[in-house]
Amino acid sequence: MNTSTPAPASVTVIGLGPMGRATAAALMRAGHRITVWNRTASRADGLVADGATLAPTPAAAVEAADLVLLSLTDYGAMYDILGPVVANPRHAGALAGKVLVNLSSDTPDESRKAAAWARDLGADFLTGGIMVPAPAVGQPGAYAFYSGPKDLFHAHEPVLRLIGETKYLGADPGLAQLLYQAHLDVFLTALASLLHATALVTAAGVPAAEFLPDAMQTLTDIPAMVGSGQALAAELAAGEHPGELSTALMMRATADHITRTSAASGVDVELPNAVKSYYDRAIAAGLGTRNWTALYEVIKAQH
Ligand SMILES: NC(=O)c1ccc[n+]([C@@H]2O[C@H](COP(=O)([O-])OP(=O)(O)OC[C@H]3O[C@@H](n4cnc5c(N)ncnc54)[C@H](OP(=O)(O)O)[C@@H]3O)[C@@H](O)[C@H]2O)c1
């Protein structure tokens, strides 16, 4: 990784939710000249007070810098903002020669389509996925995935590294999005389980404050129980799932108990039912006496 300090540059940031504001602030702290645009202009107030320039229109924002970062709810918002710019004959070439780095969440296919869309308009495109919440942007431990043309990534890495450590995944624009979604799959499911379990205990009159500290411990104990990522990867690749300490049959019984406890408490059963269905299907496939990792065989794409 290049660790030199990037020369001050002009950078445009479009989209000023918590992430866009944190990104613009991190770049400003490093001395870059920042132009911002947001649909709701008032969200730029703090950045403008700190020295950013608020562009009056998306066209002016794009005009202000060759490097344009987008931090939006999804890729549809990018087309909502930039589509009318390039559709206007006065700004038809507005994206030519620009570098778009879209840091928004969407599907890998949407990232690939957007890269082709940008290319047709004469722009270069990188996909980014920031893996930390807004307060951690630009702080030690922050990191983000990127994919797209390698030379393009390296040319802009000194600026992107101000957001967090950069992890370049390859030329396919969908790759950074895929890895972002995979991590968010783990994250969102864990968060939902935390709330589900809290609802379970509070339905029975146990205060959340008595449960949640230990629940955090359960979350952080998982790596020690599961083993290293490398070991789990090797086990999944081998497809054999040996072990009798946590068989699919035993785990299925527990999944059934969670579902029934939820139902009896009046707590929503959709999440535990989904988990239980994986165990049911693994057992139906003859994998009941294998390790719980045998679930992978019924979850993964069936070719
Ligand atoms: N928040 C996090 O912890 C976190 C962490 C990592 C990655 N991310 C990802 O980073 C991206 C930004 O996150 P955020 O939390 O800053 O999101 P956010 O609060 O939802 O902000 C989204 C931004 O998109 C704009 N927007 C949405 N739809 C639009 C449209 N149709 N036209 C114009 N502008 C539109 C909003 O404009 P207005 O202000 O006018 O509504 C706002 O500036 C998301 O893709 C998110 O998944 C978030």
Summarize the structure.
By secondary structure, the protein is α/β, with parallel strands linked by helices. The chain folds into two domains: 10-172, Rossmann fold, CATH 3.40.50.720; 179-299, N-(1-d-carboxylethyl)-l-norvaline Dehydrogenase, domain 2.
Question: How would you characterize this protein structure?
Answer:
This protein has twelve helices and eight strands. The protein has two domains: 10-172, Rossmann fold (3-Layer(aba) Sandwich); 179-299, N-(1-d-carboxylethyl)-l-norvaline Dehydrogenase, domain 2 (Orthogonal Bundle), CATH 1.10.1040.10. The chain is an alpha/beta fold and 303 residues long. Strands 3-2-1-4-5-6-7-8 form an eight-stranded mixed β-sheet, sandwiched between helices. Helix 1 (18-29) links the parallel strand 1 and strand 2. Helix 5 (108-120) runs antiparallel to helix 7, helix 7 crosses helix 8 (208-226) and helix 10 packs antiparallel against helix 11. It has helices at residues 18-29, 45-49, 58-63, 75-87, 108-120, 150-160, 174-203, 208-226, 229-238, 248-265, 270-284, 295-299; strands at residues 10-14, 33-37, 53-54, 67-70, 99-102, 124-130, 143-147, 165-168. It binds NADP nicotinamide-adenine-dinucleotide phosphate (NAP). NADP nicotinamide-adenine-dinucleotide phosphate (NAP) binds at residues 15-20, 38-40, 43, 71-73, 77, 80-81, 103-105, 130, 133-134.
